[in-house]
Amino acid sequence: MREIPSKDVHPTFRELFSYATSMEKVDYEIARYIDSSNRKLYEYQLDDEIVGFVGVEVITLKHYEIKHISVLPDLRGQSIGSKMVKFVCEKHGLSFISAETDCDAVEFYRKYGFEVIHLGEKYPGVNRFRCEYKVG
Predict the structure, then answer these.
(1) Among 118, 119, 114, which residue's Cα sits nearest to residue 131?
(2) What is the three-class DSSP state of 28?
(3) CATH number of residue 44's parent domain
(4) Is the dihedral of CA 109, 67, 132, 130 positive or negative?
(5) Where in this chain does the record put each N-acetyltransferase domain (predicted)?
(6) Is this structure's pTM higher than 0.85?
């Protein structure tokens, strides 16, 4: 895994990012990472191809929040997402990592060992979940 330099966003990365948000929001969300010193993007490659990424926000030195995470659809279920979460935790010596997600991704976090808290219908027709993991 490597951190994505602020201005070096590969075109195929945009498509991968769209799986974590909408295509209409991709450029806006990437710009938020570029413009913020508290946000970091990491890409995961297989055979020199970007197949996954994780975007995090620094809450404190020992607590990060996952803002975006995605793996190419045909490679999901192969522990790439778990490897990315583990990488971020180890690289930054975290004691706590969290995320907010929807029904589509909550099982990924639950399987990893996150405590899942149902937040209810935060947006009309969309249930949200707070996922928290104590590292170590």
Answers:
(1) 114
(2) helix
(3) 3.40.630.30
(4) negative
(5) 1-136
(6) yes
Q: Give me the number of domains the chain comprises.
A: 1
Mean pLDDT, all residues of the chain:
93
CA–CA separation, 26 and 13 (whole Å)? 10
Residue of 92 and 123 predicted with greater confidence? 92
* Residues 79/70, Cβ–Cβ less than 8 Å: no
Range of the domain at 124: 2-134
Give how far Cα 113 sits from Cα of 3, 77, 83, 87, 107, Å: 25, 15, 13, 15, 10
Per residue in 59-116, pLDDT tens?
Answer: 999 999 999 999 999 999 999 999 999 999 999 999 999 999 999 999 999 999 999 9
